[in-house]
Amino acid sequence: MTNITELKGSWNETKGKLKQKFAMLTDNDLLLVEGKNDELLGRLQTKLGKTKEQIHKIIAEL
Q1: What is the DSSP letter of 51?
Q2: Best label site of 6, 38, 41, 50, fewest CB within 10 Å?
Q3: CA distance 9 to 25
């Protein structure tokens, strides 16, 4: 599973893939700011109606 540190390295690519897969996501939804990892995951959980584990799985499969 991709962790947040690995995710930061390729975030622009991952962000694009998430926006393709889930058209309702905006740049603001996917804003990854240092120290805001939990906020990002919470926002994705709310917007997509998924659990934290499901969000991690989605990101790992991109």
Answers
A1: -
A2: 38
A3: 20
- pTM, full prediction: 0.64
Distance of CA 30 to the CA centre of its chain: 6
Q: What confidence tens digit (pLDDT) does each residue in 3-62 have?
A: 666 666 677 888 889 999 999 998 888 876 656 778 888 889 999 999 989 988 988 888
Identify residue 44 by its one-letter amino acid code: L
Number of residues assigned to the chain: 62
Q: Which residues of 11-47 are buried (b: 16+ CB within 10 A; e: fewer)?
A: eeebbeebeeeeeebeeebbeeeeeeeeebbebbeee
Of 47, 53, 51, the C-alpha closest to 30 is 47
Determine the Cα–Cα distance for residues 6 and 49; give it in Å rounded to an integer: 24
